[in-house]
Protein: Rhamnogalacturonase A/B/Epimerase-like pectate lyase domain-containing protein
Organism: Dysgonomonas gadei ATCC BAA-286
Amino acid sequence: MKKIIFTLLFILGITSMSAQGLSKKQQDTDIKPYPESVDVVSAKDFGAKADGITDDTDAIQKAMNSFGKRGGTVYLPNGTYLIAGSLNIPQAVTLKGSIESVPSHNGIRNAGLPKPGDDGTTLLITGNKGKDLDGTPAITINTNSTLRGIVMYWPSQDPDKIPDAYPWGVAMKGKNPALLDVEMLNPYNAIDASHNERALIRNISGQPLRRGIYVDAIYDIGRIENVHWNPWWSMRPTLYNWQREHGEAFIFERTDWHYVINTFCFGYNVGYKFGASQGSTGSCNGNFLGIGADACHTSVKVEQSAAYGILITNAEFVALNGDDPTMVEVTNANHGNVRFVNSAFWGPCNQIAKINGEGTVGFSDCIFVQWDRNKENRSAIQVNGGSIVVRGCDFMHDSPQITISKDVQRAIVSENTIKGKVRINNNAKNTYIVGNLGTE
């Protein structure tokens, strides 16, 4: 009997010690994720209050600077950190919040859902209001440094009004800067990904109001993965209509071999804009897979493309807002290549594509629906210059399919399926139009 009692007491003691140990471990984990490591510090150990009232800018910067050149991780425990200035993440330093997968906080728009500050690690950004692109970014990421696992929120923005200008929320500089698992709820300008090498942007969400991601002066491959821009902060008329008139979700200028996968935007003037460099020379070439733009005035606007091309595959585009909603617009300045493969275009738009310039634009195995919304006999694809290739596509609306002007250099239109009569208006000389089958 004594032996049984001793055994029970021993088991209870071990269980109690284990529970105490687990409780202590959980408590430490709330402060820093790897408490046994000298390479991890908590910003609270350097004076950060995380109360949403005290300016924590200096405390967080002091924590990041404490590593010197060796690098390390600054952990921001659950809480709300007021950032009235700007942060500069030193080389090889990670600034990390408590969030392991990018969240959404749309409780300001939809009552009852989480609001910024309700959970996780939230930064309240208030510095440099009114300065636009000439101001210091809220956070700068440098060579081999990382920002991850946080929510960024601009509390002074009014969801009912035209937004106030702010500088970039995040600027990525140097070599191998990384931005991971971050919600940028309502930035005026979200991410400056220019003048760096091998930048990695992954798992980002939010509602940028003027500019989403800007890429320029890139000479070694950058990567953008799983970015979702959606208006879950505000769709109130004054602000949202301003965003739809001025907003640009993704902007690409001079960049070599950019890899972009699984990106989406909703409610912008331009979804994906490709242009000539503002800070370097040249334009974009890259690989764009599984991208989407919904409810934009123009889904894709190409002002300039590199000769070796903008390659877009498995994309989905919907244009239905503005005076002249158009899926693809290629301007007179373009001299390069643009290719769309296995992509879908739908929504009540005026036209699928308006093509100008001297470059080559191609559509292969694509689906076209719902153009000519006002029944004006507009062609799905209007080609005014350059060269055009349309092969194996499905025109699923009974309106004119393609108009080719006399200034077009070359045109191949072949093996397309068409609802209604084949209506291809060809005014060019150097063309190959064959094997297009209608239902009438």
Q: What stands out?
A: The mean pLDDT is 93. The longest strand covers residues 255-266. Residues 314 and 343 are 5 Å apart (CA to CA). The chain has three helices and 40 strands.
